[in-house]
Amino acid sequence: MAISERSRHSVTRLTGGRMTQVLTRHIVLIGMMGAGKTAIGSELARRLRVPFTDSDAEIEAAAAMSISEIFARDGEAFFRAREAQVLSRLLAGAPGVVSTGGGAWMRPENRQIVAARGLSVWLNCSPETLWARVRQRPTRPLLQTADPKGTLLRLLAERSPVYALADLEFVSRAGDTIEATATRLIAELTAAHPTLTQEKP
Fold first, then answer.
1. Is there a contact between 198 and 25 (Cβ–Cβ < 8 Å)?
2. Concatenated DSSP letters of 35-66
3. Are 157 and 32 in contact (CB under 8 A)?
4. Helix boundaries (H) for the chain
5. CA angle 34–69–51, rounded 5-degree value
6. In 3D, which of 154, 73, 122 has the Cα closest to residue 82?
7. Nearest to 102, CA basis, from 163, 169, 42
């Protein structure tokens, strides 16, 4: 769908035009493992000239362990509790782009935190695209099953109705580059949520 001329000007301002804009709240990327939250989030933050933070990376840094090691030693419930703490801390800071783990959005308390301080964006990918990406990374703790593809599809079916509660659903295209995806996402954000930015004094 074409965006208005006003939205095009807004996109120009977001991406470094003459009028500097600042984010009024965080952009929080949600979605399944393999959706490209970290890659797209990094590029989006670069374009918007704001910090990018990966909540999983923050959890690993705080624990001095990988996500897989945390799951193995302490279990998923422990991990989810720490995930909520880290997300709350990240969103208390200056607005930026935040990438979350695939299960973070499933907890009501996390959705409330994000709603209060950010704009949630669901990166929606096809099952085929997700599987093509995650099958190359055998360290995903939730896919350590006898049928990892079946597990992925089950998780996607369970989570999609909750992901759909996000402020914006962004459909990822398998053939697009990271740069093209970021450009399209900025356009959709600007068109759907014009108050996401404001002019810097």
1. no
2. S-HHHHHHHHHHHHT--EEEHHHHHHHHHTS-
3. no
4. 5-14, 37-48, 55-63, 67-74, 76-91, 108-117, 127-134, 148-163, 178-192
5. 50
6. 73
7. 163
The one-character DSSP state at 29 is E
**Within its chain, how far is the Cα of 109 from the centroid?**
17
CA 121 – CA 117 distance, rounded (Å): 13
Distance CA 14, CA 187 (A): 10
Q: Is the pLDDT of residue 19 over 80?
A: no
Nearest to 37 by CA among 123, 107, 119: 123
Structure tokens at 138: 């055998």
Paired tokens of 21: 């804009």
Residue 3, pLDDT > 90, answer no
Predicted TM-score (pTM) of the model is: 0.84
